[in-house]
Amino acid sequence: MIINQLTFLLLFCLLGWSGALIRPVPGISTSDRDGRTLHRTKRGWMWNSFFLLEEWTGTGKQYVGKLHSDMDTEDGNVKYVLMGDGAGTVFEIDENSGDIHATRRLDREEKALYTLSAKAVNKTSGLDLEKASEFIIKIHDINDNEPKFAKDTYVASVSEMSNVGAFVIRVTATDADDEAYGNSAKLVYSILQGQPYFSVEPETGVIRTALPNMIRENREHYQVVIQAKDMAGQMGGLSGTTTVNITLQDVNNSPPRFPHSTYHLSTPESAGIGSSVGRIKAYDADVGENAEMWYSILDGDGQDMFNIITDSTSQEGVITVKKQLDYESKRLYSLRVQVTNTHIDRRFEQLGPFSDTAIVRITVTDVDEPPVFSRTLYIFEVDEDTPAGSSVGTVSARDPDTINHLVKYTIDRHTDLERLFNIDSNNGTISTLQGLDRETSKWHNISVLATELSTALQTRVPVFIKVRDVNDNAPEFAMYYETFVCENVKAGQLIQTISAVDTDEPLVGHKFVFSLSSINPNFTIFDNEDNTARILTRRGGFNRREMNSYLLPVVISDNDYPIQSSTSTLTVRVCACDSRGNVQTCSTEALLLSAGLSTGALVAILLCILILLMIVVLFAALRRQKKKEPLIISKEDVRDNVVSYNDEGGGEEDTQAFDIGTLRNPEVIDTNKLRRDIMPEMLFPFRRSSPLKDNTDVRDFINGRLQENDSDPTAPPYDSLATYAYEGNGSLAESLSSLESAATEGDQEFEYLSHWGPQFKKLADMYIGQESQRET
């Protein structure tokens, strides 16, 4: 009771809060949802919400409500103004009456509410009669949207052999209608297609299996249609559908099986180790890793001769050769092969066993085989220096076929380029063709070929021949020794330690003995018995002026059989040493110094010789100079009038340095000389042709030479030029060659020589005189 009184008091206070607000006009009716007319009394407050149905199907504009201000005395001086969402476009107001209308059909799914404000304005003054008041127009929902799924098609999978109720997938639909208003958005799911295999939960849309132990091998793919309906699934509700494609996932519930119980394979006896004999395959109804298998050999007489591997790509068992086959030894083998699933699902072990067996029989076929050596390689030893023709060893090969063929032996000469060995083609005995030297090569590697005479099949075997050492080399000095002895040395002093080397290699190691070939009064040798020896002085007081070097023969012997020895000569030079025995010098300069010539004297002598040589060279240069005659012989000093020309001519072609016209015939000068101060009228000056230009002999000679050079393959290269032409066409004398001479000398005229000038007067007299004598 108290709560009701407080509520009434609060409502009363709110209604009396403002008497100047816009409010509904008293007596103005509004329609409720039942269509009844409600009459309201005049109050000092306004509704803050209007309600309007979406998707109105009536004619004209849809009426929303009416606004009225307490300041409106209904004298027509008040104007109502509408502002906010959709004002003027979606909603309009009658400025005189305050009636609000919607200008078009509204969709709640586009916009659920509109916030507007209204005010009253004096038409005359334009002033606001009261502050703007805000209100809301809400759009009431109707069921005008059907449910829609997120996808048109769903893809799902579930394992085969699943129990009833196994989860598959959840599908979800949405309805754009208002969930808070009625059942327009309340959805119910149902299955239209896919029964009796699957079911759907009405409220959640979860799809589950409806049958137990569905087998993928029987049917793998299913198509299920799900419907979502609003209005809680009642009559008249809207609905939407979607398709769910469900695939049964494979599990390992099918064991592998061989299609045949026995397989027959064959392979030639020449098949190499690891080569394939054949393939067998078992079949498994499962897929993927559930169908993976591996093969093994359980037993059989061919278990040691063959192996089986699994091809992971094709899931086949590949039988391969494990050991070399021999048709002559065994021709038929039997194997028991097992196939087993790699991945076994323990949940379905009761459906097993997940393995199978089969018998594989393998037949070995005969082939013509090459000869087979008794060993894979041969190693022989032979002494060096063995005479040619000595036996080294014997190789043996046989024909493994049933019918034995003759075998011939040869040496591959590519492995014996020096032809050191030979082999008997019938029995395979290897012998030497020449003596062997271990110091040159310790091992010889050759290849022997065995060839069947009837089939020409060959087999190769390596033969390694070791050359044993024989003591055939004498020891010698290990190095070149430079031995010195001081002049002031004392008797018994060590001057050199020597050692020796031997190219032979005895089994017990080297043992060298050192001695002198004869008793030496100056030096002696002491054997250290460790393959070294010491050279000692037998006396003191050596003098370089008497003897500057000594030759000491040393005999070196080894201890192998037969004993080898050699004599090596040790050169001992006499040198000047200080008191401590350090060598100072052993050169010839020291001898000169001992003769009394000092270093200063030697330098003075060399300097004098050099000065004399310079004097001789200078004198010779002065003698070669020639005295030049002066250009002008005069007692007066005419140096100011002397002009020197140091330029050299460029030959006959250099016409700028001097004029060579005086050397030519005057007639030629007159006819061919060009002026230098004007441009010539023609590019090339006229050249007189040979008077014998029609000489056929010369033309035939030149043409013949040209044809010979063109057709000669050994002719010079193209950058070599062989020239055949006339001579002297540029001078009045023309060609001096005898090729242009006439057949007889009487055809020649020499009168023109008298016109060539005084230079040719002697020549003119000679030829003109001979011509006059001939005429006489």
TrEMBL record:
InterPro entries hit by this protein: Cadherin, Cadherin-like_dom, Cadherin-like_sf, Cadherin_CS, Cadherin_Y-type_LIR, Catenin-bd_sf
Keyword list, A-Z: Calcium, Cell adhesion, Cell membrane, Cleavage on pair of basic residues, Glycoprotein, Membrane, Metal-binding, Repeat, Signal, Transmembrane, Transmembrane helix
Pfam families in the cross-refs: CADH_Y-type_LIR, Cadherin
TM helices/strands, residue ranges: 590-622
Molecular function terms, GO-annotated: beta-catenin binding; cadherin binding; calcium ion binding
Gene Ontology CC entries for this record: adherens junction; catenin complex
Keyword Transmembrane helix attached: yes
Subcellular location: Cell membrane
GO biological process, one term: morphogenesis of an epithelium
Principal cellular location given in the protein's record: membrane
PROSITE patterns: CADHERIN_1, CADHERIN_2
Topology in the lipid bilayer: Single-pass type I membrane protein
Signal peptide as annotated in the record: 1-22
Domain Cadherin, chain residue ranges per copy: 69-149, 150-258, 259-373, 374-477, 477-591
Function: Cadherins are calcium-dependent cell adhesion proteins. They preferentially interact with themselves in a homophilic manner in connecting cells; cadherins may thus contribute to the sorting of heterogeneous cell types.
Protein name as it appears in the record: Cadherin-10
Taxonomic lineage from the root: Eukaryota, Metazoa, Chordata, Craniata, Vertebrata
